[in-house]
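hey
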């Protein structure tokens, strides 16, 4: 298939593009700059110049393809309405270009849209009061195209998509431990997070494009319930630091970002059993704790990038894609 991809040059995107190319698919990727275009070309993809808010460019890319993978997500997290508007406009433009074609359209969301405090499945409705509720309208917009002759599906990624070059939540936790001299968790640390290795996520995106039924909600989760305390303990071991329990207010100061403290306090375990059975997806790469022991999370470069993103640029710069 010829796949048009948005977000192919971000954190998860290059691994997905490489997986698609290795599987024999042709990839065209949205490129907003010369740097982005060069990165896509190095992965074996053809750049398609444009931006996420350039709807004409999105339509033309989708019209020329056999399927679309939408991973890009941008804007200021302090303005959820703008995030929703931008994402839904992009999804509508891409989906309308595919209407009536039966072609696949895979969009990206996150498992943090589900209800906290219990193990959620793909069949559970998203929670409008969740911390990531701003992703729900995009999910609904994409899935709505299933009734318009599009094989649309949504992949909800775990909040931690780990692997080389990660600049998401976990590097922020490590950077805070370095600064404070203690690896912290909130309360008793028993709250649970799902996680997935980036290479496993890439396989899931490929399988979704190849065979996910129209209207499918898929969970990109390799591990359903990793406790924050176990993550903090592994970080402490690697840095030879003590661990400590903090209140939510203390954690905001420790992390330097109230947004991060709120996320690390969540108990949001998620199952991917249905996704694995439906698509024959079998996560096989390193677990999160294994990656923390053997990956590149503790290099100086990793800490520098985490500091830049979470303390200087802000959370609006963070994206799975």
């Amino acid at each position: 298939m010829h796949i048009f991809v948005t977000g192919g040059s971000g954190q998860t995107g290059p691994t997905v593009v490489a997986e698609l190319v290795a599987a024999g698919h042709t990839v065209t990727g949205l490129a907003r700059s010369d740097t982005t275009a060069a990165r896509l070309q190095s992965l074996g993809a053809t750049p398609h110049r444009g931006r996420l808010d350039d709807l004409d460019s999105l339509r033309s890319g989708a019209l020329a393809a056999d399927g679309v993978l939408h991973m890009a997500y941008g804007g200021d997290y302090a303005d959820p309405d703008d995030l929703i508007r931008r994402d839904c406009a992009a999804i509508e433009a891409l989906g309308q270009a595919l209407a009536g074609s039966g072609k696949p359209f895979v969009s990206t969301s996150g498992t943090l849209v589900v209800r906290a405090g219990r193990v959620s499945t793909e069949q559970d409705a998203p929670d409008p009061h969740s911390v990531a509720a701003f992703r729900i309208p995009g999910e609904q917009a994409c899935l709505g195209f299933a009734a318009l002759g599009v094989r649309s599906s949504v992949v909800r990624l775990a909040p931690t998509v780990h692997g080389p070059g990660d600049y998401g939540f976990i590097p922020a936790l490590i950077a805070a431990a370095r600064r404070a001299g203690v690896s912290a968790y909130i309360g008793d640390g028993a709250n649970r997070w799902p996680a997935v290795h980036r290479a496993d996520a890439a396989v899931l995106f490929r399988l979704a494009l190849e065979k996910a039924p129209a209207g499918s909600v898929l969970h990109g989760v390799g591990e359903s319930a990793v406790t924050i305390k176990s993550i903090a303990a592994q970080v402490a071991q690697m840095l030879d630091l003590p661990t400590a329990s903090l209140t939510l207010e203390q954690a905001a100061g420790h992390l330097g970002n109230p947004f991060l403290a709120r996320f690390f306090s969540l108990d949001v375990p998620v199952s991917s059993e249905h996704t694995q059975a439906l698509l024959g997806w079998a996560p096989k790469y390193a677990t999160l704790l294994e990656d923390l022991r053997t990956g590149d999370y503790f290099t100086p470069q990793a800490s520098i990038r985490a500091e830049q993103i979470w303390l200087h640029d802000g959370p609006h710069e963070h994206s799975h894609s």
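The chain has 13 helices and twelve strands. The CA atoms of residues 246 and 272 lie 31 Å apart.
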